[in-house]
Design goal:
The protein is mainly beta and 513 residues long. Helices cover 3% and strands 43% of the residues. It is built from one helix and 37 strands. Strands 1-30-29-28 form a four-stranded antiparallel β-sheet, with no helix packed on it. A hairpin with a 7-residue loop joins strand 18 (252-253) and strand 19 (261-262). The longest helix has 16 residues, at 2-17. The protein starts with a helix and ends with a strand.
Length: 513
């Protein structure tokens, strides 16, 4: 029996050491899926809602370990560009383009909502109806201080037209009554673009909210990456847009194996209590490192957008490798910035990884690391989508991305282990502590290795941070590997964290029951 237990422990430790530190979770059934977006409930970060083209909805109540998939429908039609944001009191909003049974394709921007996960989606309301012009590439944001919703997007006079008489502009609308009604759209962009849907088209308008109710929007087009703001909740805007940076090479980018690729800007603002409260960040990709070398960049402003820093490169590899489709999020609890992007630094062909970058100093410097477990190979003959997405809240970091295998798309997330950030590879604790199985139903094995003998504390806490059990208290442990068997049958379903305090510091590992 002793030999069997030792053998089991040895095999288990080998298996645990091989675990990927940021588990990849399949969210969607493989098929025609792309352009994912994810949101979490700040009042309960274990509740998450995601969307993907054209009408897919994914929900999770355990922090993203398990997902349910359904379809969205509306009398106005659902035609992609999914955007999901959290509302107040557990509500979620889902914005998308339209395709009405009677009417014009993408003739408006539609907003639907659920009051809680598991509820029914409202048929929705809309903004921007202005036929024969079309409304495209929207994004939304909620001001949590008052419930106001702000949306910005591109209006095409005639989509795809090369006529100088047709143009594109950035529009903005707001709702002050939980999406029941929307204001008449106002134009933000002073310089109009063309309608070709390329570099000289005005696109990429993503709104952000400031700590005092400011509204910020950036976009790209013939005048570069431009910025506008409102200091009165979207009623009035700047007379002249502010230049953030030239979009070197343009936002319509050529990446091998990708049917269509853009580097359009993403705007966020730190509304938390970090040292960088109020900072605005704009993230995009371009070729300022050289023609054919696409990198990810972030510029920041600490004075409400009046002036902007020189762009800082996010990816930390050498020259000549493409990084594309970035998205940025700020954790309001820490002020840390997180950027997800596709990356080809490890391959000489079109094989692609997914990387995550983090800044712990307000965007001045960056670290990056791979989060996808395996690379994938995209085919340009299959539409890949136009964006990735990421959300971060109180160290719950969930990126979402599309991958392609044998020409078939699927949507993924990762359970990001934020305790690894900033640690050199050779001392990162992914080989020092592991959990198996995960999720667990009957029992779980917590395996850890000490490089030095000393006293150890081990406790289990729930998703709210409350201590469920003190497993070890000032216990003497020798150097080497240790395995703790812990029963979980009596625990309620949810997310739990093992917190180990020992000679090597504090290590945390999450487990789902």
């Amino acid at each position: 029996m002793r030999f069997f237990f030792l053998l089991l422990s040895f095999l288990l430790s080998l298996s645990l050491q091989a675990q990927w530190p940021h588990p990849n979770i399949l969210m969607s059934a493989p098929g025609y899926t792309n352009e994912p977006c994810i949101a979490l409930n700040p009042d309960n970060p274990m509740e998450m809602v995601a969307g993907a083209n054209i009408n897919n909805v994914y929900t999770s109540t355990d922090g993203g370990w398990n997902w349910s998939q359904s379809s969205l429908s509306s009398s106005y039609g659902v035609w992609g560009d999914p955007v999901v944001i959290p509302g107040l009191n557990g509500r979620f909003y889902y914005f998308h383009l339209s395709n009405p049974p009677q009417g014009q394709w993408i003739d408006r921007i539609v907003c639907q909502w659920i009051d809680s996960i598991g509820g029914s989606w409202a048929d929705g309301t809309y903004m921007g109806l202005n036929p024969p012009k079309v409304q495209d590439k929207e994004w939304g944001i909620l001001d949590r201080s008052n419930g106001n919703i702000y949306v910005s997007w591109t209006q095409f006079d005639n989509y795809g037209s090369a006529s100088p008489a047709d143009s594109t502009v950035i529009l903005f609308s707001r709702s002050l009554d939980e999406a029941q009604s929307w204001s008449t759209p106002v134009r933000l962009s002073q310089v109009a673009g063309d309608c070709i849907d390329s570099d000289n088209t005005t696109e990429g308008a993503v709104p952000a909210v400031g700590p005092n109710g400011e509204v910020y929007v950036s976009w790209s087009g013939p005048a570069g990456i431009r910025f506008d703001r409102s200091l009165d909740q979207g009623q009035t805007w700047l007379t002249n847009d502010i230049l953030i940076a030239n979009h070197v090479g343009g936002w319509d980018q050529d990446v091998s194996g990708i049917s269509r690729c853009n580097g359009m800007p993403v705007t966020i603002c730190d509304t938390g209590n970090s040292p960088w409260q109020g900072n605005i960040y704009v993230c995009w990709s371009d070729e300022r490192s050289g023609s054919g070398d696409i990198d990810v960049w972030v510029s920041r402003s600490s004075n409400q957008g009046n002036s902007w820093s020189s762009p800082v490169r996010v990816n930390q590899d050498g020259p000549g490798n493409d990084q594309f489709f970035p998205w940025i999020s700020v954790d309001p609890a820490t002020g840390w910035l997180w950027v997800v992007f596709y990356d080809r630094r490890n391959h000489i062909d079109d094989y692609t990884d997914v990387f995550l970058a983090v800044s712990q100093d307000g965007g001045q410097s960056w670290q990056d690391f791979k989060i996808s477990e395996t690379p994938f190979l995209p085919y340009s003959s299959v539409f890949f989508g136009d964006y990735t997405h990421i959300v971060a809240y109180n160290n719950v970091v969930r990126p979402v991305w599309n991958r392609m295998d044998n020409g078939v798309n699927s949507i993924w997330t990762a359970i990001v282990n934020t305790t690894l950030v900033g640690m050199p590879e050779e001392v990162r604790p992914e080989a020092e502590a592991n959990i198996y199985p995960n999720p667990a139903t009957e029992e779980v094995f917590f395996s850890f290795r000490l490089r030095h003998p000393g006293k150890v504390n081990l406790k289990l806490v729930d998703a709210s941070g409350k201590t469920v059990d003190v497993i070890l208290l000032n216990a003497d442990r020798s150097s080497g590997r240790h395995i703790i068997r812990y029963p979980v049958q009596t625990l309620a379903e949810g997310l739990y964290t093992f917190v180990l305090e020992g000679p090597e510091g504090v290590i945390t590992r999450k487990v789902v029951k």
